Amino acid sequence: MVFSIAVSEIINKNAPVPLTGDVEEQIRYAASLGFDGVEIHTPSPEQVDADRIRTLCRELGIAVTTIGTGSIFGKFNLSIADPDPVRREVLYSMLTEYVDLASELGSKITIGSLKGNLSPDRDASLDIVRGELKRLSSYASGKGVKILLEATNRYENNYFNTGDEVASFIRSAGFGNVGILMDAFHMNIEEEDPFTCFENYGDLIWHIHIADNNRHFPGGGSFDFHSFADEIRRIGYDGIISVECLPYPDGKTAAVRSIGFMNEFFRA
Q: Which of 87, 176, 181, 205 is 20 to 30 Å apart from 1, CA to CA?
């Protein structure tokens, strides 16, 4: 398995990104702890020097696993479900920059909170979402980039809350380069049984986030990671497991506790 951790230049203790500050410094720190990869969260791809990051990662033997887009929603309140076509056009232009960056870094991009919320006319809203993801998927395909669509809890988004919902959407739309990102924190809220649900769509899981039930580092709460790890092994998942947790009690401590936990539960 590939062990990854979220990094960002933005220092925000309310964001589930444990390592914040200078991105290159955080990548070096993650590599020193034994992480195999990092996911970079940024509100502006142009702020990321792809050449420097690519060279650094090659030197350290570490990969960029995905580029997070949630900062767009937080900073600009844009989403793929926005009913305003002008705002969606602005967002699409921004997302193509994320795809370009991911292409340069050999990474994926993540669509999580950027899903936004459906309007009361859910069918019409879903048509908008389908259309936006279709053209983004087409652009990304041309760049050799895959898209991760995340199942997030009902308190953050009012649709695509479970893995089954996301899987059904991807299959019905026929997206070849869109897969599922599952997150233990969200699963603990939404899934009827977070330890057996993967069997329905294991083939579509391309990335897994872990944090405990309180969104602290894994092992800092009460989530049953024994059963979670068993389920991952049972379906034969051997991909990316990435820490996306709050920087509690601080980011470096969360990172140290996380890699120790991951080595114990998932390395074997």
A: 176
C-alpha to C-alpha distance for 4 and 24, rounded to whole angstroms: 15
CA distances from 11 to 101, 155, 176 (A): 22, 23, 35
Distances (CA, A) of 257 to 1, 208, 240: 18, 18, 18
The closest alpha carbon to 243, from 36, 9, 13, belongs to: 36
pLDDT tens digits along 180-218: 999 999 999 999 999 999 988 999 999 999 999 999 999
Structure tokens at 160: 């695509």
pTM metric for this prediction? 0.96
Domains of the chain: 2-265 (3.20.20.150)
Q: Does residue 249 have a cis peptide bond before it, meaning omega lies within 30 degrees of 0?
A: yes
Beta strands in the chain (DSSP E): 2-8, 19-20, 37-41, 63-68, 108-111, 147-150, 178-183, 205-210, 240-243
Three-class SS of residue 247? coil
